[in-house]
Write a structure and sequence with these properties.
alpha+beta, globular, single chain, Alpha-Beta Plaits, two-stranded antiparallel ribbon, four-stranded antiparallel beta sheet
């Protein structure tokens, strides 16, 4: 299982990631920035999560489509 990281402080809240992969990404209600859905977070960190195999495609699409390139994927 891979890992996904969001550099949240650089997020522009454009909505691309949560539009493309709403099962994994969401907009935070507290700061409006992108975050990982709670069920997939590592150590309760909204900017780090484990990638489920069935979501790899949409997570990669979201990372590739991010206009500020703040989403990274590690194997």
């Amino acid at each position: 299982m891979g890992k996904c990281t969001i550099v949240r402080e650089d997020c522009t809240s454009c909505g691309t990631c949560w539009d493309l992969c709403p099962e994994f990404f969401e907009q935070s209600t507290s700061d409006s920035l992108s975050q990982i859905v709670e069920g997939y977070r590592r150590n309760e960190n909204p900017g780090e999560g484990d990638i489920p195999p069935d979501m790899e495609g949409c997570i990669k699409d979201a990372a590739d489509s991010c206009p500020v390139q703040i989403i990274t994927i590690e194997e």
